Here is the input.
Amino acid sequence: MAFDERQVVDLTQPHHLPNLRPDRQPPHPSWLPRQRRGTTPQMIGRYPDYDVFDARPTWDPATARVVDERMGMAGRRLTFFREEEQLTLRAFCDVCVAQDAEPRVPVAEMVDEKLAAGRLDGYQYADMPDDRDTWHLVLAGLDEVAAGRYGAESFAAADTATQEAIVGLLAKGELSGGSWDRLNVSRAWSVCMRMILAAFYSHPWAWNEIGFGGPAYPRGFMRLGPLSTREPFERPGATSEDPVRVAPELGE
Amino acid sequence: MIRHLLKGSIGPEDNDSRFLLDVHRRDLPGEDTMVRYEDSEEVDLVVVGAGAGGSVLAQRLARAGWTVVMLEAGPFWHPDEDWVSDEAGSHKLYWTQKRIIGGSDPIEMGKNNSGRGVGGSMVHYAGYCPRFHPSDFEIRTRDGVGADWPIGYDELLPHYERVERELPVAGQDWPWDRPHRYPFSPHPVSAAASVVWRGAHRLGIRMRVGPVGIVNGTFGNRPHCLYRGYCLQGCKVNAKASPYVTHLPDALAHRVEIRAGCMAARVELDEAGRARGVTYFREGSPVERMQRAKVVAVAGYSIETPRLLLNSASARFPRGLCNNEDQVGRYVMVQGASQTAGRFPEELRMYKAPPPEVSSEDFYETDPSRGFARGFSIQTVSPLPIGWAEHVLADGHWGRALREYMRDYNHWTVAGVLNELLPLPENRVTLAEETDPYGLPVARFDYSLCDNDRANIDFSTKVITEILQAAGAQDVLTIHRYAHLIGGARMGTSPDNSVVDANQRTWAVPNLYISDGSVCPTQGSANPALTIMALASRLGAHLARTGV
Here is the structure.
């Protein structure tokens, strides 16, 4: 079960999946091919020659408009979170979906926009504040833990290992004191992650990374299986071939 | 034999919706020419809520010559512009106004179980349309749990059959329940769903394709499904059934007014204790209006129907309308909806084809050897990326591990269950202290599982995990969750055990009816949409017979 990234990677095998590995952590993403077509977060992915935007001419106008607006979120000024919260917010969003390099899906901007517009999910736990207050408390709590327990200036200033350790405690509901005592910690984790994941995986770059077909109206899908599950515009998952050799064959 | 030959060609009687739709546009035809009634005009019927229950009732009574106004809190959809082939962009389809959730097992609301807008939550339901089983109507007698209905399967049967022709439902011949056929042939099975089928087959568990309210072929002006996989985001094709395409076109053609953007505040009574209309707010206006009516039907579903009754307190009903016996809002049920995903060597790309594909009711009935009462059904589901991320998170992964599982998306398939969780009096809707923008107290929904529920959930999760393993899964991930709502204003035999009688008339107010899923005393392991429609169809037939 040992994972050697120099070995031939066979995607029919599941050796890269965390549950099947001794430390329940994936291998370093360096085993993944660099994206050759289109953009993925951090330019890694399993479908190096797939770009969901290739199919954009087949999307209906209403859907195209929604996706375009999402693409315009990068660089948007944050209005919901206060200046002093923004570094913590960005660091927290980065750690939760492991975005450690550019290009990044603008998760912080997308979360901020949703909270500013009050587009919440329609429920509030009886033992929790409003989702908007939960976000403020979580960011404050992250800074408190980083300073109080790890001696860092703030959560954003801590090194990645410390940030991951703190988020690991949050995910397990094992934080207390200060702002955390005003929250049900496990539920606070779920409130934040719901919004972070909805932002990250609504972004076309993430669709490229995972090989998702994207918007499909009015075109639809024809290849449901069993003979093939791949449309002509879709691309197979990354293989063990050397991308430098394969790219010319794909017409790049 | 004859019925097999005629598959797909038998249309419903007394419902022209499929012909009234436009082939090239998705808008509900008749919005511009719709009749408009004055508030002061006493119409025959005002319906609160334009979802599964309210729409079928309105269509039936409009056909019987009644004048009908429907009040709908959400928007009048124009699907070509409003609905998108996108997960996050479909947020507006859900009832996202605040609700407070409590109890030891709080139920997440919103996209999971609550709709808003003309067509209701069937706009974003998956499409599964199974019937309840005969046993569901008498679980107290058979299994000593829950409650018996005051009506039986046979009283609902003609309406099940009628609504199945109207949707229309596509599926294989059904060996469970009381064996029956469906009006449309089964859809093709996707690669992802066929893997689940293979695992079940190896364990001797029977699976069948469907039953889904998705056109297989054309149906009037409704086109064939495109297999694009966005059933839960609103069908932009008009292939998936919802009242928006199955009943409201015909209703508008028969003098029904749908007043969208209108939030009901109170049911008003006259001095004799009869309902005389519904007070409501038009979106953006603080002015209270009142639509007068001879008969009032509430169809706001299990959270908003009790909320409206409780908000309609008066001197005669100080604890809320119809609540002098403390029954309103009680026995609200959800179904356990745990899902297990399995990883396979080949690319399955589960985002293709409708998420509802194949299902099994082999575990539906009580089996004493399992150690709990009642049972569950098994259904395939196929989450899109955000849904898949929530699944991965629920198994305890975030950060790099989550990204790794997400990148593996195309190798996974998902099997889900629907557990029959039992009706309990303390699982109820009450009013919270918090108010909405109109000043109306919002609903609070408390929910806690009982031991029988937990045993059912544990057992069923083991079964779907075994199915995936039998199919050759290399890894599995599980999420425990809930789906659907039912109950909250149940029907029964007397005012001290229920809110409405066998004809869905409230015990307390002679011309007030409830026409939604909240009247169900039990829920079976079946998705509730078809039963909610069948009950509304039955109520419509009853009122058409008795007259205003």
